[in-house]
Amino acid sequence: MGNGQRSKSSEHFLVTGAYGCIGAWTVKQLVDEKVQVWAYDLPGNPHRLRLIMDDAALEQVHFVTGDITDQALFERTVVEQGITTIIHLAALQVPFVRADPVGGARVNVVGTAVVLEAAKRHLDQIDGLVYASSIGVYGPAALYPEAPLAHTAPLAPTNLYGVYKQANEGMAQVYWAEDGVRSIGLRPYVVYGPGRDQGMTSTPTKAMLAAAVQRGYHISYGGAAVFQYAPDVAAIFIAAARAGCDGATVYNIGGSAVTMDDIIAAIQEAAPDVASQITSEATPLPHPPTINSDPLDEVLGPVRYTDLHSGVHDTIEHFRMAARDGRIDVARILA
Prior knowledge:
By secondary structure, the protein is an alpha/beta fold. It has one domain (about 10-335): 3-Layer(aba) Sandwich (Rossmann fold), CATH 3.40.50.720. About 40% of the residues lie in helices and about 15% in strands. It contains 13 helices and 12 strands. The chain has helices at about 20-30, 45-50, 55-60, 70-80, 95-100, 100-120, 160-180, 205-210, 230-240, 260-270, 295-300, 310-325, 330-335, and strands at about 10-15, 35-40, 60-65, 85-90, 130, 185, 190, 215-220, 225-230, 250, 255-260, 280. The protein has a 7-stranded parallel β-sheet with strand order 3-2-1-4-5-6-10, sandwiched between helices. Strand 1 (about 10-15), helix 1 (about 20-30) and strand 2 (about 35-40) form a beta-alpha-beta unit. The longest helix is centred in the N-terminal third of the chain and has 21 residues, at about 100-120.
C-alpha cells in the first residue's frame, strides 16, 4: 500500500532530526496540514521550530527525545505511535563530521541503518520512507564535463560526510533488494531560508540575517550553485514520502541555479541599507554548478520552486520580525 492511498487523518509521520532546518520546516508543514507528526531528536532547545511556528502550532507536535543510534527506542517509537511514514533527516553536517569522524559515522551511517532496520521489521506498517542524502556524494565539477548534473552521474565524494551519505544510498538499495524496503533518497544542494544557521553552505543565509538586522557579512564561498528554499525542500520530502514508489531510488533536487553575485544582489534588493556590506569569497563550492532534477518531477509531478528573489525577500522579512520579537539569537548565529 502506498502512502498516496492513505488519508491524511490516518497518517502518522515521524521526522528524525526535527530540530534542524529542513526538519523544522517539515514538521511545520505537516502541522499546517493537520497531520499527526512526531519530532524525534536529541535533547535541546527547538529554536528553529520556534522561529517558524507559534505556540499553538508547537502544541500539536508530539516530541520524542532520543538518539537516532538508539535502535530499541527508535523501533519502540515506531511501533507504539503507529508510525506510517518516516522522514529521516538526522545527521551531523560536514564540519561536525570532520571534527569527529567516528561520531559522524555513528549518527550518519549507523543512524540510517537503525531507520532502515525498523522499516524492514515493520513493512506492513510503514508506507513511506524518505531520507536525506546530499550533493556531497558527487565529486569535483571537473569530473562531470557535461552539465547539468544527472542523478545517475558517478559518485565520487571528497570528504567523509559525502562518503557516509553514499553508504546510506548503498544501504537503502540493499534493503530494497533483500527485504523489499521501499525508500527515496533526496540530495539537497545549498538550502537557504529561516532556520539554516549551521553547516558548510549556511553562510548565504547568515548574510540574509545580517542584512535583516542592518549588519555587514562576508559569505565564505562564491561561484555558482543550486540554491533551494527550505520550505520548498521540506515540501519535496513530504511529497516523496507519500509517493508510494517501489525501489530504492535517489534524486537530485532542483532550485535556482545562480551565482553568488545573484544572491548578493537579491539581498541588496531586499535590504538596500546594507547593500555595500554584503560580500563573498571568490572560491566556488567544489560541485557542478547546475543539476538535472527532471527525474524527480517524473516521480512527484511538477515540483514548485520559489524564485530566488521571493525566497531571499521572505527570508529577510522573517528574520526582521523574529529579531524584533526576540525569537532568534542573532549574536550566536553571526558569531
